[in-house]
Amino acid sequence: MAMADIVPTSERTPLRIALFSGNYNYVRDGANQALNRLVGYLLSQGCDVRVYAPKVENPAFEATGELVGVPALPIPGRSEYRVPMALSPRVRRDLGRFAPHVVHVSSPDVVAHRAVSWARSRNIPVLASVHTRFETYPQYYGMGFLEAPLLAGLKRFYNRCDALVAPSDSMVTLLKEQGMNENVSLWTRGVDREIFSPVARDMAWRRSLGIADDEQVIGFLGRLVMEKGLDVFSAACAELDKRGVKHRVLVIGEGPARGWFTERLSNAVFVGHQMGKDLGRAVASMDMLFNPSVTETFGNVTLEAMACALPVVAAVATGSQSLVADGVSGKLVEPGDIDGFADALSAYCTDPALASTHGAAGEARASEYGWDEVNSAVLSAYCQLLAPQG
């Protein structure tokens, strides 16, 4: 079915999508990079897209498409992030003029709730994309008692939407089991093979950081925030030190927990935030990726490391389970199992041939993830919501 054939207008016209995001480009992360790629794809397919999200003076990167600012306030204690506060009269007027065929919400914040209400009152279908497991966050900040009410709130929000898309089969299954919505489909993630490739490995760059050629490098890639499992990462590396397993740690990323992380990783090299070819070089110059996080719904960093032919040690969690084949392209360990993570890392540190074999399997798996094919699933989901129901 052609896109124009299902748009409910008297004339053949571009599909109009209103996308709501709590963070579209002011701080770089995997979720907003996926959204920007999606918008770029939709525009290339002839759609009209208008993005509603907080704006800042100096965003992390230029937004793809037209961005309309919504009122927002900094999050206490995490001021780099903004909380969208209201669907203001100005934004409502803009939304009315745009007259979207579909509303897409990507974070369960106040503005997204209001956008869902706005759409439902006008019989406009709503698609929600799920990018992170918000219910897992409280445990990292000593507030585990909030998990149950947070789950209940998420359930109310997602059941007000007509359909959900999630980035991994394991996350699709979990959302259905949690009762978030019955209509959940897959919107996975892609990887840029021009950036993430084994050929980007640069031993001279490693040497410039003081890393010897024969040292096994355990890599961390991501925002330096506690919910990424920094405590588990540092504890597993400390266990390797205790066992006398030689290794170096390479940390790619920035964030408010950098000081905490630095104190606990005595032999680590911190290279900060990297972009484009520099990021590809840094990832390919690791010998393995260690991703202990359980908050991701997909794990972009895991796929990027696999594309660079690195074995991955990851927690048994949504996302990683759909990417890493345990004992084939990496090792999956129960969340928080410090000895288990140390065992898996030690195996790769002491057996480079095993690391190479598992890395090659990961690269083969990563070759299946092309961005256009991935993003076409979201366009198909929009079309299904607009198709006449028989």
Automatic annotation (TrEMBL):
<dbReference type="Pfam" id="PF13439">
    <property type="entry name" value="Glyco_transf_4"/>
</dbReference>
<dbReference type="InterPro" id="IPR028098">
    <property type="entry name" value="Glyco_trans_4-like_N"/>
</dbReference>
<dbReference type="Pfam" id="PF13692">
    <property type="entry name" value="Glyco_trans_1_4"/>
</dbReference>
<dbReference type="GO" id="GO:0016757">
    <property type="term" value="F:glycosyltransferase activity"/>
</dbReference>
<dbReference type="InterPro" id="IPR050194">
    <property type="entry name" value="Glycosyltransferase_grp1"/>
</dbReference>
<feature type="domain" description="Glycosyltransferase subfamily 4-like N-terminal">
    <location>
        <begin position="29"/>
        <end position="194"/>
    </location>
</feature>
<protein>
    <submittedName>
        <fullName>Sulfolipid synthase</fullName>
    </submittedName>
</protein>
